[in-house]
Amino acid sequence: MNKIIDPAIPRHVAIIMDGNGRWALGRGLGRLFGHRKGVEAVRRTVDAARESGISYLTLFAFSSENWKRPADEVDGIMELIATFIHRELDNYHRQNMRFQMIGERSGLSAKILRALEVAEERTRNNTGLHVVVAVNYGSRAEIAGAARALAKKVAEGRLNPDDIDEAAIGEHLDTAGLPDPDLVIRTSGEQRLSNFLLWQTAYSELVFLPCNWPDFSREMFFEALSEYARRNRRFGALSAPQAALTDT
Ligand code: IPE
Ligand code: IPE
Ligand code: MG
């Protein structure tokens, strides 16, 4: 893929795919129908992301808090994730896409873990769209894990506490090596992060959409990218025209 650096195009888009349950409920169907329909939206979104020229797409598929749901719903979601990856792997590999999982691996069933690890292993050297799937992911748990890893290194005398800076913490998160998301999209009308990439989204642009995830379309994806292009990212500094007006 020919990558042109254009500041109007986000490098990394992360999506909180929310509203499957409400989509189903509104149609008098069980929640699992919504999750199943949500898989189609994932397929559309990956295709749109590939065409858009972004480099990284992160999808929040299952949070560490989602275990609080009934077992049959949890099992159904896990099954859908494993099946989706298994089914699409050949196709995505041919398209030079790379797969990566973030989240806590312990606690996942052997089946889903294997699907994720096979996909990671097979696509490791691909250079096209990098798709990150967050499964059993919780940002606070991830940050606590980084703190533990750093503390162990200090205790073993391999790290000086004074060397613990923002970069050191970043390198101990699941997302080590990935750029921070430029744009976070959440569907379903909720306007919160729900423990998703709290460290990494410090300066991300947020776009909240009223539609439920199964209704998310390629047009909505491109409209969110247009919205991003209209935003003025300042990172605490002044925007270019304002900086030009200062007399120092
Ligand atoms: C998002 O849809 C999918 C997951 C959290 C796994 P929900 O299942 O949260 O749907 P709502 O929010 O209940 O409508
Ligand atoms: C966030 O959605 C998790 C995923 C989309 C996987 P939730 O539905 O779990 O979030 P809350 O509970 O509404 O905050
Ligand atoms: Mg939800």
TrEMBL record:
PANTHER family: DEHYDRODOLICHYL DIPHOSPHATE SYNTHASE 2, DEHYDRODOLICHYL DIPHOSPHATE SYNTHASE FAMILY MEMBER. It comes from the Bacteria. CDD domains: Cis_IPPS. Mg(2+) binds at D18, E205. It comes from Martelella mediterranea DSM 17316. Its EC number is 2.5.1.-. Belongs to the UPP synthase family. SUPFAM superfamilies: Undecaprenyl diphosphate synthase. Its cofactor is Mg(2+). Substrate binds at residues 19-23, 31, 35, 63-65, 67, 69, 186, 192-194. Catalyzes the condensation of isopentenyl diphosphate (IPP) with allylic pyrophosphates generating different type of terpenoids. One of its GO terms (molecular function) is magnesium ion binding. This is Isoprenyl transferase. The gene is uppS. It holds the Pfam family Prenyltransf. HAMAP family: ISPT. GO terms for cellular component: cytosol. It is an enzyme of class 2 (transferase). Keywords: Magnesium, Metal-binding, Transferase.
